[in-house]
Every structure is written in structure tokens, then in C-alpha cells.
Amino acid sequence: MRRTVTATGTERVLDDAGARGLAVEIVERPAADSLEAAAALLGIEASSIVKSLVVKKHDGTFLFALIPGDRQISWAKLRAAVGVNKLSMPSADLALEATGFERGTISPMGSTTAWPVFADERIVGRRVALGAGTHGRSAFVDADSLVSAYKATVADISD
Length: 159
Fold this sequence. Notes:
Layout: H1 9-19, E1 25-28, H2 35-42, E2 50-57, E3 62-68, H3 75-82, E4 87-88, H4 92-99, E5 117-120, E6 127-131, E7 137-142, H5 143-149, E8 153-155
Parallel strand pairs: 3-5, 5-8
Antiparallel strand pairs: 1-7, 2-3, 2-4, 6-7
């Protein structure tokens, strides 16, 4: 499903989430120079900030990998979960083209294309913050509801 990019990133996040019955709280926040600083500004643990990573498949399509902030993507685990031999991180320009979001604002919510979502099992059962489509904002959601709304595959995909 392809969406137009006429609305702001945060408007797209809220519209998409609302259409899926997903409750989202948008929080304004100042810029932070580290994950730990961002977590402190939001009053949460670093593991509750979820990185929405856009990953390119060998066939030219993409997926989202949702990784807790205090962990790194495990390429071997993600390849196994996806069932492919090759995955890569696209350039910032290609990630923008694939999602309609700049790095640092990326979210599966409101993406211009509804790519498959793979969520690290460690986010399950938590309230998490992720990109809100606009710099200086975070989107808080219940991770279980997010997984359900986007029919995400939950797996161990981080180290």
C-alpha cells in the first residue's frame, strides 16, 4: 500500500495508526546527542526506545526491523527470520525514498509503503517510544498493540 507524502510525517504516523486502531501518544522532545540522553529526556530506559531500521532485501524491497535502543541488529538472526541470504542497510536517500521519512524519524507507522515489520522479541510486553515521522518528536505505543496492528513477525533479531 503506497501513501502520498502531502501530510507531515507526524500526521501520517497518527493517521496510519488510527486507521489500524493503534493508540499513539506523540511527545515533543529536545534534540539529544546520545541514546542515553534521549532516554533521560523521555523519562524511560534506553531499551524502551525502539530503533525503526529500514533494511533492504536483495530483491530491492524493504522491511522494518524494530530493535531496542540498547541493542544492535543481528544480521544473521534477521536473515534467518526473514528467510533470505542477504540484507543490507540502504543509504539515507534510499531509506527516505522507501518510507517517506528521514533517518531519525522513521517508523512503520505512516510509511509511504507498508513494508513487512520484524520486531525483536525484547520489545514485547512494553510501552516503547519510536520515530514519530518528524524530528523532535517521539511516538509512544504499546509494543504488543504495534505488533498486532502491523502483523509483525516477532523474533530474536538483536545482539
